[in-house]
Design goal:
It is built from five helices and five strands, in the order E-H-H-H-E-E-E-H-E-H. It is of the alpha+beta class. It has one domain: Gcn5-related N-acetyltransferase (GNAT) (Aminopeptidase), CATH 3.40.630. A five-stranded mixed sheet has the order 1-2-3-4-5. A hairpin with a 2-residue loop joins strand 2 and strand 3. The longest helix has 15 residues. The chain starts with 7 loop residues before the first strand and ends in a 24-residue tail after the last helix. It binds coenzyme A. The site of coenzyme A has 16 residues, from strand 4, helix 4 and helix 5.
Length: 146
């Protein structure tokens, strides 16, 4: 896939189940998480906000926000298909997710950086939480972590 002749269109919408599962698989996380396609698709209706990037109508990127609508937002499933990475699509998706959270006046916008993606998020203004107030998770739920 080449971006030379095709514009990327960004829409505030949920991806369809099949295209989301395909995109998710391109991230390599499916194996790591061991989640079946129907279970992956079942996550979509829980999104508070979502952005899809399309190239010629085809889904090439997503980003979703889970939120309580007032205090907390968690950015998840920021994924761009490998063929078009490095062209600013992921950056644009995250900016749009953050803009929506700011519009709503949410107090905290958080995410888990995948391995090697810390610099990507730092350039977008995210900072690691301090050592005396870290993000935490229950250990041992996933043995292989992306
Ligand atoms: C993380 C991810 C979404 C980034 O998407 P992307 O569209 O490649 O993101 P961008 O193009 O905006 O930025 C990626 C890199 O390309 C660079 N870049 C952006 N626009 C560019 C351009 N026009 N020319 C050259 N490089 C560019 C950025 O500086 C950035 O550098 P980095 O690799 O050092 O971070 C993508 O790598 C991905 O889907 N990875 C697998 C899933 C994943 O790990 N998601 C993160 C979950 S926490």
């Amino acid at each position: 896939m080449s971006l030379d002749n095709l514009a990327i269109e960004y829409r505030a919408e949920l991806p369809a189940a099949e295209e989301f599962v395909r995109l998710f698989r391109s991230s390599g996380w499916t194996e790591a998480f061991g989640v079946a396609a129907d279970r992956l698709a079942a996550t979509l209706p829980h999104a508070w906000y979502a952005v899809c990037a399309r190239c010629g109508g085809q889904l090439v990127g997503t980003g979703l926000v889970l939120s309580d609508g007032v205090l907390h937002a968690l950015i998840v499933n920021v994924i761009v298909v490998p063929e078009v990475r490095g062209h600013g699509i992921g950056t644009e998706i995250v900016k749009r997710l953050v803009a929506r959270c700011q519009e709503e006046g949410l107090l905290q916008v958080q995410l888990f950086s995948a391995r090697g993606k810390r610099g990507f998020y730092e350039r977008l203004g995210f900072v690691a939480r301090p050592d005396d107030g870290p993000g935490m998770e229950l250990s041992g739920l996933l043995s292989e972590r992306p």
